[in-house]
Write a structure and sequence with these properties.
- The complex is a heterodimer of chains A (163) and B (419).
- Chain A is built from 8 helices and 7 strands; from the N terminus they run E-H-H-H-E-H-E-H-E-H-E-E-E-H-H.
- A 7-stranded mixed beta sheet of chain A has the order 4-3-2-1-5-6-7.
- By secondary structure, chain B is of the alpha/beta class.
- Chain B contains 14 helices and 18 strands.
- In chain B, the strands form 5 sheets. In chain B, strands 4-3-2-5-6 form a 5-stranded parallel beta sheet.
- Chain B is globular and about 60 Å long.
- The chains are: A alpha/beta (163), B alpha/beta (419).
- Chains A and B meet through helix 5 and helix 8 of A and helix 2, helix 3 and helix 5 of B.
Chain lengths: 163, 419
């Protein structure tokens, strides 16, 4: 699958409280959560973000709490993909499980600027920056995780295994 | 090549003789935990899976502790989802208000977690149970849903870092200071994806409550789990609590560690983590110019009897500073009762602090002590991220209960020896 979207750039150690503050965790409705997505990192993000946009961040994106509401809020906001230098492990796992595409790539994360347009080939992990024309290769997923991704998340994967 | 204690627990639960770091394994679980924030999502996903019944009614533990006693209508609806699910599925380990506590204080106390167990919880501080020599790690709601249905989860076998603490512990230095100092040293992603193994002569004599505090904060260094080797202290703690068989594992002498880090604890002071990351640490004597609006003593990190005891010993016969609000949260009903019987609660109330029912409440900015814009809190909790305890422009400083109690008296960050 090929994704094209505009970059919203964030720094290092963006925690899940910044992605979706706990004051909104009394619901798990994606549309409700999306209204407050990234609010404590950038209060204007929920207004600015458009369907297909891409979050680009430095290291350790999604550190902190295990709340699945974090990737749900990002997906609910219409973000097509998150690219970071590295992800905290629970966020990484949650994103794969709910079918939010995430990619680890140092070079793409360094080079992308706010507002750049990126093209992302999910199957190959190839990222192209339309402004510069430069291409970057993201780290590939292990085979087992690719199987979960192909099924659209863990629930469908377990269902398929059951039947 | 030998295995670490964490690798051994994963191997046994995967039905394998040996595993290597990096290997993906499918494991049978001993305990699956969820709370009132994460379980509603998990229950909704469980329903989508098409399973009628959970895999094992005794292995699932549901604890409504985050926004309970229900803080608003939406929270009440979420708590009700847990209650209804527990009833429908006949779960033996659902803890209603009156029996509940903060999950990571409650499960060990109730004997639900044991050495050698493999435990997942839809809460990042599930790593707390590593204090008993279990492999325990946080996951999200979808993992919890799949585990409730199948009794299994997949894991990537982690590499390990060994932390060796040696020397004599100075007065007023405890588990919170050791773990904050360690996070300050390696950073909030210093142990990302890894096991943190806590060892050394200073650990050998460290109490179980102090060990819970250390294992609890492994996640704040990005760790997959934090773990202690079962010894007499751990076995004494579980002896009259755990009612099922369990097995003790130890790391092999030739187990491979990515790194071994050593700390001379005799050189330490109580540690403070400054906003907005747990890695921003300073010794308390370098932090005394910070004035505080609110003190929180409690949480899954420091809400146990020993934590309350040390806070009470400092507050005994003293008054809370008039410009400071002090809120104290015993971790469970049992801890509350012990604090009552030991006179700690009387001490707190006489000093001018308030004592709450067990809840995660203010730690995550849920309820029971939210900060206004510009306010500063000193808390014995585990996270000081932007907006963690309320307004995005408020600040949270992290410390031990001893420093929190001393600071409550002075109204600014204060070393315990000054009170």
């Amino acid at each position: 699958m090929k994704l094209t979207g505009k970059v919203h750039k964030f720094g290092a150690d963006i925690d899940t409280d910044a992605i979706i503050p706990a004051r909104y965790l009394n619901t798990f409705d994606p549309d409700e959560l999306a209204k407050h997505c990234m609010e404590d990192a950038d209060p204007l993000f929920p207004e600015k973000v458009q369907a297909g946009d891409i979050i680009v961040a430095d290291k350790n994106f999604g550190c902190g709490s295990s709340r699945e509401h974090a990737p749900i809020a990002i997906k609910g906001a219409g973000v097509s993909c998150v690219i970071a230098k590295s992800f905290a492990r629970i966020f990484y796992r949650n994103s794969i499980n709910i079918g939010l595409p995430i990619l680890e790539c140092d070079e793409a994360a360094d080079a992308a600027l706010n507002g750049d347009e990126l093209i992302v080939e999910l199957e190959t992990g190839m990222i192209t920056n339309k402004r510069t024309g430069e291409e970057y290769q993201a780290a590939p997923f292990p085979e087992f995780m690719q199987a979960i991704i192909h099924k659209g998340g863990l629930i469908n994967y377990v269902k398929a295994k059951k039947s | 090549m030998g295995m670490t204690i964490s690798q051994k627990i994963l191997a046994v639960h995967a039905g394998l003789d040996h595993v290597e770091a990096g290997e993906l394994v499918n494991c049978q679980l001993d305990v699956i935990l969820g709370n009132d924030v994460t379980s509603p999502v998990a229950i909704s996903e469980f329903d989508r899976l098409g399973y009628e019944k959970v895999h094992d009614q005794e292995k699932i533990v549901l604890v409504p502790d985050h926004f309970t006693p229900n803080k608003d209508i939406k929270s009440a609806e979420q708590a009700k989802i847990l209650r209804d699910f527990a009833k429908k599925q006949g779960l033996t380990n659902y803890f209603e208000i009156g029996q509940m506590g903060i999950e990571h204080c409650l499960l060990p106390e109730q004997g639900l977690v044991a050495p050698g167990d493999l435990i997942i919880g839809a809460d990042s501080h599930t790593c707390t149970y590593g204090a008993l020599g279990a492999f325990a790690t946080g996951v999200g709601s979808t993992d919890m849903a799949a585990a409730m249905a199948t009794g299994e989860a997949w894991f990537k076998v982690p590499e390990a870092i060994k932390f060796v603490y040696y020397g004599k512990m100075p007065e007023w230095v405890g588990g919170k200071d050791l773990i904050l100092h360690t996070i300050g040293d390696i950073g909030v992603d210093g142990a990302r994806y890894m096991s943190m193994e806590f060892t050394g002569e200073a650990i050998d004599s460290l109490s179980i409550d102090n060990r819970f505090t250390m294992a609890n904060m492994a996640i704040e260094a990005g760790g997959k789990n934090g773990i202690f080797t079962p010894d007499e202290i751990i076995l004494n703690y579980v002896k009259n609590r755990v009612k099922r068989p369990y097995k003790v594992y130890k790391s092999d002498l030739d187990a491979k560690y990515l790194e071994i880090r050593e700390y001379d604890v005799s050189k330490l002071e109580p540690v403070i983590a400054f906003p907005h990351l747990p890695e921003n640490t300073r010794f308390v004597s370098e932090a005394t110019d910070v004035e505080i609006d609110q003190i929180v003593i409690g949480s899954c990190t420091n809400g146990r009897t020993e934590d309350l005891k040390i806070a009470a010993s400092i507050l005994k016969g003293k008054k809370v500073h008039p410009e400071v609000r002090v809120i104290i949260f015993p971790g469970t009903q049992q801890i509350y009762l012990e604090a009552l019987r030991n006179g700690y609660i009387e001490t707190f109330v006489e000093a001018g602090a308030v004592v709450s029912t067990p809840t995660c409440g203010p730690c995550l900015g849920g309820h029971m002590g939210i900060l206004a814009k510009g306010e500063k809190a000193l808390a014995t909790t585990n996270r000081n991220f932007v907006g963690r305890m309320g307004h995005p422009e408020s600040e949270v400083y992290l410390s031990s209960p001893a420093v929190a109690a001393a600071s409550a008296v002075k109204g600014r960050i204060t070393p315990p020896w000054e009170v």
